[in-house]
Amino acid sequence: MSELRYPWDKHPTAGTTQEVAPGVRWLTMPMGGSLNHINLYLLEDTNGWWVVDTGLGLPQTETLWREIFASELAGRPVVGVICTHMHPDHIGQALMITDEFRCPLYMTRSEYYQARAFSSMSGSSHSSWLGQAFFQRAGMPADYMEQLALMWSKRASTGMSMPQMPGGFTRLQDNDVLNIGGNEWRIVVGSGHSPEHACLFASSLKILISGDQVLPIITSNVSVHPTEPNANPLKVWLESHDKFNQIPADTLVLPAHNLPFYGVRERLRELISHHEDRMLAIEEHCAQAPAVAKELLPVLFKRELDPRQMMMALGEAIAHLHLLMHRNRIERTLNEDGLYHFRSIDPDLKRRSHPLDHDAPIDGPVLV
Ligand SMILES: [Zn+2]
Predict the structure, then answer these.
(1) Which of 119, 197, 294, 353 could form a disulfide with 85 if both were Cys (CB 3.0 to 4.6 A apart)?
(2) Which of 70, 66, 61 is nearest to 28 (CA)?
């Protein structure tokens, strides 16, 4: 069982902020679906405030921000906006806030350019032969691309489409230090959930702002997408944990979803063991007979998935398969039927396997 400790049992009311440490304030912005909200943070500097992540690009989010500007910043401006990564719930209001205060946007380079590329949606892999090949090889039905296209067309109203980005940025890199209000905030870059995800760690406060890299309850989506069909994101995600394991055990983690918590190392242990368990279950499945990626979804997820959840779930299944291929435990062949078949090849699997003793499949992939 999880040994995490949560110092607060509920989120601040929308439009208000709550101090979690001297000069560090917590606020939330609404999101649809089971996630319900995203956590954002304000850091107090000598001349104003830094904003860490910004919420979805919806009118109601902008309205709430304007309430916060008016009532929660003690009449002082925003002096910088930091986006941990390029997902729409993190960057949705970056343009509005940086325009309002004429302040810089801070992001890592991969995240900034990926956000800009996706917001133009030119050359989208999901609507081309690249997407077609990716999904067909995974065993998806021929009309799946049409289902996805319909889903994309409905997304704009939920704020989950990619917003327009500020025209320039200040680059963050791993180990950079931002001096904010007398505290040194070190950038710790993780990967796997997104390409170059920035977390912020202040040793003077023992606080880690973890974005979506480390979450206490849900597991961040770690997926292979048609844009880079041979990527190995689970490998780099697990490797990123080495860095976060060096953070002091009594650090307060401020995540982008769920509640702030203590217990970063316990959480990392849980996450690693969860993914190792999923990979072993996949190996056992692919030892009985070669399988296509789609057949592995019930091994990982228990509920019916809509087209978008299906895309995330498939991406996660393929991420697990690619790490297993890297470890020489699974072999992939492109058969005459045009499908990728995955087969377990590790002679040691019999000794390692315990098919009756796995974590139950989880409810569904989380769309963060
Ligand atoms: Zn994310």
Answers:
(1) 197
(2) 61
- Name the class of domain 18-121+163-262: alpha beta
CATH class of 273-352: mainly alpha
Separation of CA 110 and ligand 1 centre (Å): 14
Asked if the domains 18-121+163-262 and 273-352 are classified in one and the same CATH topology, the answer is: no
Q: How far is the CA of 87 from the centre of ligand 1 (A)?
A: 5
In our burial notation (b when 16+ CB lie closer than 10 A, e otherwise), range 338-365 reads ebbbbebebeeeeeebeeeeeeeeeebb
Show me where the domains of the chain are located.
18-121+163-262, 125-156, 273-352
Distance 221 CA to ligand 1 centre (A): 8
Span from the CA of 357 to the centroid of ligand 1 (angstroms): 31
State the distance from the centre of ligand 1 to the C-alpha of 194, rounded, in angstroms: 7
Ligand 1 centroid to Cα of residue 351, in Å, is: 37
Biggest distance spanned by C-alpha atoms of the chain: 67
